[in-house]
What we know:
This protein is 75% helix and 0% strand. It is mainly alpha-helical. Helix 1 packs antiparallel against helix 11 and helix 9 packs parallel to helix 11.
Amino acid sequence: MGYDAIVGLAIVALGTGLGYSGAVMNPFTVGMAQSIADVPQMSGAGYRIICHIILIAVASFFVIRYALKIQADPTKSLVYGDDFSSLAMDSDHIENKPFGIREKLVLATLVAGIVVIVWGTKAKGWYFAELSAVFLLMGLVSGFIMGWGPNEIAEKVAKSFSEIAVACMMIGIARGILVVLQAGHIIDTIVYYLSIPLSKLPGAISAVAMFLVQTGINFFIPSGSGQAVTSMPIMAPLADLIGISRQSAVLAFQFGDGLSNIIWPTSMTPIICGIAGVKIEKWWKWFVPVFIVLVLTQSILMAVSVVIW
């Protein structure tokens, strides 16, 4: 399409980060945070949808602007000259690929799997272990539908795993920070002392500061549900103390947990960069300015939430 790996990475990363930031019914983040804050489930959905649309519009502007610049002059790419041959696709093969009954059954398997995942997370409380099992079963079923034997499926799984093995190793190294914090029993202490200055600030500024604190906490606790369990028992009563809605406290957690997932090295950043074959410093070079603008946008949305809630 004439773009570069940064464009592809940005589409996936921002889609994920903003998907969390603007989530309305994510049971692991918004649902858990609202439950802990003792506010009705799914409440505030209208404003969250508006926030989601605004954030997507802002992010899309930057992605499209960069994509058009690269399309016009590939030498301006931040990854110009880097080797992406391992990720190259044969355009002729893609254009001439048949879409017969087998392919349609694989697509149906994907749809059915997503339905099962939604049901499992909502009705059964499934998390990573169960979701991973569903995806693995979807892959196995799809392989058999395509007529592949057990050996061929195993070879494809092994090849795919080898492509993300480096990213998996980077996850382990990055999560080492979290292991140290947990073993030292100092996460709660960090969250507590980060929350103290918020009690000295006025309403709208407090809400923005709460969002920024949650963004910082996400460096130490990249798990959405883990951050909700750790921070919301402090942030919810703190919201009462400083005179803002608990709904705004939930939104601050949601914003802080979502977008920073694609900039902090302790979260998914090493994973997505490793899979995309983009050096993390090159991703940061493009994304940090975008991140700043999005944080400013979220800050304005946080201030507005204080007024309407």
